[in-house]
Design goal:
Blueprint lengths: L1 H26 L13 E7 L6 H9 L8 E7 L6 H10 L6 E5 L9 H10 L5 E4 L5 E2 L3 H12 L3 E3 L2 E4 L4 H22 L11 E4 H6 L13 H10 L6 E3 L7 E4 L4 H13 L7 H26 L2 H28 L9 H21 L7
Parallel strand pairs: 1-2, 1-4, 2-3, 6-9, 7-10
Antiparallel strand pairs: 4-8, 5-10, 6-8
Helix pairs in contact: 1-6, 1-10, 1-11, 6-11, 9-12, 10-11, 10-12, 11-12
Length: about 375
């Protein structure tokens, strides 16, 4: 009886959170980019062993509709052992890139790590607005234009941009894309409610003076991940500075899905592992409720098979309840990304998700996550 009451309480808390995020997401208007913006950007790209993708990103930046004299690109090579730095250096010397600057972490005696790479790039930035993006991402031609228009219209201190996984042909890739949409919806919905909990460094913009005011990424150097979320939590402590989510098709940044389960759980382990450094109460509450409902489902299903059919039934009902709560948000977000065709995978994702969350918790708290080898 006590177990059933606990599961009911967790289910109610989960429903309140997700329905609130859904309302926040739906309430957000879709922003369309505008021309004639005057904002200047320093785009910071931390890169380690990205010879396969770095040129694609730099070419996409070269094709931006935004004026070239209103942004610079600073690529920080974080101790790559491949040809990443050499490729970029040759293209800069040839004149192919007029506004791209290369920093080699090894020449700066920087300790390896994404936070150090980002800090080095931001320290060299010439402009008031910093934009971070990952080296293997795909951006549209209106990316900076969308960010600039939104900044000038809304006046935030930080802008959380939309990130999506480009679904490949494999079922695993498509499942990742659908699952990632649920994270985007929760991220946007929480920000719309004035309680941002997550962001993604693959598409994040913020004022440089605010970054310096909160002492940048300092304080969490011992964690392999979390440069983006820890910075978000620091920005939340700045009085009078708004954090906003940019719901814009022109601002979407696409990242690639992971190929293997090993890579997938290694990434999710990094995400979970940084939770130990969280101090933001609402983020901890949200993470705790999500972890508990999924843990309750997994333990209930497992124990129910061997101990009690009533417990098994309770776990199954909790699974169905969670699916009903999740469905409206995921349906709306997939529509925004024009990927509603992926919703046919929703039943499978519903069944797999609790087990994946529990496995990620194990990976994050038991194993030692790293950014890259």
């Amino acid at each position: 009886m006590a177990m059933t009451l606990i599961l009911i309480l967790i289910a109610l808390l989960y429903a309140i959170l997700i329905l609130a995020f859904t309302a926040g997401w739906v309430r957000l208007p879709v922003f369309w980019h505008k021309t004639d913006s005057t904002t200047h950007f320093s785009v910071i790209i931390p890169a380690r062993n990205e010879e396969r993708y770095i040129m694609q990103l730099l070419i996409l930046l070269r094709k931006q509709s935004y004026p070239k004299d209103q942004f610079e690109v600073i690529l920080v090579d974080d101790h790559s052992t491949d040809a990443t730095a050499g490729i970029v250096e040759r293209k800069i010397k040839s004149g192919f890139f007029s506004n791209v600057h290369l920093i080699r972490a090894v020449d700066e005696d920087l300790v390896p790590g994404k936070k150090n790479a980002l800090s080095s790039g931001i320290a060299r930035a010439s402009y008031d607005w910093i934009v971070t993006v990952d080296a293997d991402c795909i951006i549209g031609s209106h990316w900076l234009e969308s960010l600039a228009g939104f900044i000038e219209q809304e006046g935030p201190a930080m802008v959380i941009g939309p990130v999506a996984i480009a679904p490949g042909k494999t079922l695993f890739s498509q499942m990742q894309a659908l699952e990632f949409m649920s994270l985007t919806g929760s991220t946007a919905g929480a920000a719309a409610l004035g309680r941002p909990i997550m962001c993604n460094g693959a598409n994040l913009a913020f004022r440089k003076d605010c970054f310096e005011k909160v002492c940048g990424y300092s304080g969490n150097e011992h964690l392999a991940s979390g440069d983006d979320v820890f910075l978000l939590h620091k920005f939340k402590q700045l009085k009078g500075n708004r954090i906003a989510f940019l719901k814009s098709h022109g601002a979407i940044v696409y990242t690639r899905g992971l190929i293997s389960l090993k890579e997938f759980f290694r990434q999710r382990g990094r995400w979970v592992g940084k939770a130990g450094g969280y101090k933001d109460g609402f983020t901890l509450l949200t993470g705790g409720v999500v972890a508990l409902i999924n843990l309750g489902i997994v333990l209930g299903l497992g124990a129910g098979l061997f101990i009690s059919q009533k417990l098994l039934l309770s776990a199954l009902l909790l699974l169905v309840f969670k699916a009903l709560v999740d469905f409206p948000l995921l349906l709306s977000v997939s529509g925004f990304y024009q990927r509603r065709v992926l919703m046919w995978l929703f039943p499978a994702l519903t069944l797999v998700y609790p087990f994946y969350v529990v496995a990620s918790l194990f990976s994050g708290f038991v194993l030692k996550p790293r950014w890259k080898s």
